[in-house]
Amino acid sequence: MSATEYLQRNREKHLNELIEWLRIPSVSAKSEHKADTAAAADWLAERMREAGLTVEIIPTAGHPVVLGEWRGAPAGAPTLLIYGHYDVQPPEPLDEWTSAPFEPEVRDGNLYARGSVDDKGQVYLHVKAVQALLAEGGSLPANVVFCIEGEEEIGSPNLATFLRDNAERLACDTVVISDTTMFAPGLPCITTGLRGMAYMEVRVQGPATDLHSGAYGGAVVNPANALARIIAQLHDDQGRVAIPGFYDRVRELTPEQRQAIAGLPFEEETLRKEVGAPKLSGEAGFGSIERIWARPTLDVNGLLSGYTGEGAKTVLPARAMAKISMRLVPDQDFHEVEKLFTAHVQSLAPEGVTVEVLALHGGQPWHAEGSGPVFDAAARALEAAWGRKPVFIREGGSIPIVQAFQETLNAQALLIGFGLPGENAHAPNEWMSVENFQKGAEAIAGMYEELR
Amino acid sequence: MSATEYLQRNREKHLNELIEWLRIPSVSAKSEHKADTAAAADWLAERMREAGLTVEIIPTAGHPVVLGEWRGAPAGAPTLLIYGHYDVQPPEPLDEWTSAPFEPEVRDGNLYARGSVDDKGQVYLHVKAVQALLAEGGSLPANVVFCIEGEEEIGSPNLATFLRDNAERLACDTVVISDTTMFAPGLPCITTGLRGMAYMEVRVQGPATDLHSGAYGGAVVNPANALARIIAQLHDDQGRVAIPGFYDRVRELTPEQRQAIAGLPFEEETLRKEVGAPKLSGEAGFGSIERIWARPTLDVNGLLSGYTGEGAKTVLPARAMAKISMRLVPDQDFHEVEKLFTAHVQSLAPEGVTVEVLALHGGQPWHAEGSGPVFDAAARALEAAWGRKPVFIREGGSIPIVQAFQETLNAQALLIGFGLPGENAHAPNEWMSVENFQKGAEAIAGMYEELR
């Protein structure tokens, strides 16, 4: 019997196991769920052992990491590290759930529960894939290390330390992460790009204290007006970022990549309705998907100055502040962009105010190689499971964990997600497609088979 | 004996009376001082009666008005209304006072107490002037109505109603107000101009809700960036307001007015140090006094959008708000400016956002005629008291009461202030020059004499 047959025969059993796991409210953000979070780790450890892995629950300063290993592959075989997380988002607001967040329910082919798709379902299909292979063939063509943490939903505060402290044990060729979303139902995807970020704060100081706008207005430079003029000069009229040097390292989309994006099932009007804006717009010459996946941006994230309460207060404010972040694409470097931004903003500062620029947070953009033995094996396996070639998609946001693995373990990441649009991760009525749970497990088992 | 001699002979007695009044903490903003505020009204009423006025304390929805009348002038004589207030600002922070706010103390020729210059001292010198004239001559060349309210420091919420309800009784030719400041010690002044105001709020709406700046940034127009671009286009590079039609009704300064301003004892560097800005700047071609007194402005009073707390939050905000006020000069009309502003801001709104413009508050600019019997009499009397011609100054702010009198009673206002720069009105260590209290009384008595 093949692994696929094993998975198909045990389909209902595996779904019920997942449901059992989803009943444990492993909300990492809340101290009252500390025991539940530990119980979810224990539950997973026990299932991993049943699957044939050697398991250890390793404490951290916060919630523990469940480490599962199988190292029986022949010499020279690659090592895969499966990263995921067993903690979940808080379920609130509770009254917006159709069925209770920790009482999983299947409706219309979807399994509704907090953590179903983010990330317990996507972790568990990896466990079941390995179990199927070991049960049916007794071995895997690669060494496997599961590294399933319990703090992803609170920003993985202890992961980098854990990776550094256990770098030798976690050494691997590829990190496989299933925590992303397919572009559309029935369309298998590999996520090949994430944007980086340079997050800045600009502080403009005018007079030493707030002044009466009648007694001084007109003679004293207003820091809020000055800040607005600075921000206005950060884009040109084509929606391009107007910081000198900003685009120097931007890797342009190839004609093939643009063609692939144009072929995706996507309507601008659908996105417009989703965000509720009167019109979509951005950098001239690109469509929305290109703008989000492959073009850098500059967005004001926050503005504050003077009086912001109800009614009229005639203050000439002493200071004004903007939080401004830039999303970056390969091969931009966030350290360099921070410097370019700071120099340009300082050059825009008008007389009469002083401008301070702070770099609050940064991360590098990421782009997968898009080939290699594991990547190719995964692509073939996805095609076998869904009956069509996978598409290579990107995300406009960042997944800091990908950076952490790349930097600490020097391993390539492979992002294969089995979520679907509208899955409500982080929102009420989170769900995972039962079919994707099943086909995901078959595809992952297939990936190992393809590596033989 | 002349009125001046009467005032000089009773100098110490009058100062001690004022000190007695200043001991009453008539803080209108605080309910625990309600009885004190009433006591201050009673005290004033009693002194007015002693001066020879017919006095009535008229209740309002808040603190009462002290109305004092003398109507013995010959037929055809003008009627002057003396406006002032007996309430004071809260004294906090108490620990910054050298002597206690309600234990008046004379140091270096200045009387320190809350309310000394704002406005009890300036009210009381009017009472003493009338008393001197009635005591020495038995009559005045004008009918006089004192209208001294108890709510100026809380925005005069009941004054407009009071004026309307008592319009016949308050009918007058000129309203004399002593609640302003001389430009410099020893330099008598008449305030001949106040700026008006159009206070607006601009609300920019982008997407329906806050979005993740990674998942959508670049494809959705950011309302905070859009607001900054709108604000940046409200001035040109010369510091002029760039709203079409904005300057059409602005009365330009005459060469004589500019020369008079240039002759005032004023240093730009002193103002720069006072406000603590790195440099003063504003509309090209004008000095700071001209900018504050006679040029219209546009200032952002408040900005708010997105995340303004500590650290980095990657939000693409749904909306952004600015409070923006324009100070207006004769002959601008605030209703018209509101319309010009709204139309221009709407015309600047980029695709992808909707812009709403609200008019929150408005007031007309004011400029005194600068001549006429009472004005000329006051000018001559000021010259006699100080030994030099008074200068005509303006204020950059608004005094809504001037508008209220003009609109309700159709009376010209005459603003003669006896405060001095640095007098700390509204701040700890408020003081009034004892010399100005004395000379002010003499000048006001002289004004009546000049009307004979």
Automatic annotation (TrEMBL), chains A, B:
Keyword Protease: yes
Gene Ontology biological process terms, A to Z: proteolysis
Gene3D superfamilies: 3.30.70.360, Zn peptidases (3.40.630.10)
Boundaries of every Peptidase M20 dimerisation domain copy: 192-352
GO molecular function, one term: metal ion binding
Cited Pfam families: M20_dimer (PF07687), Peptidase_M20 (PF01546)
InterPro entries attached to this UniProt entry: Cyt/Met_Dipeptidase, Peptidase_M20, Peptidase_M20_dimer
Keywords, sorted A to Z: Hydrolase, Metal-binding, Protease
Highest taxon above the source species: Bacteria
Protein name: Acetylornithine deacetylase/succinyl-diaminopimelate desuccinylase-like protein
Organism (species): Longimicrobium terrae
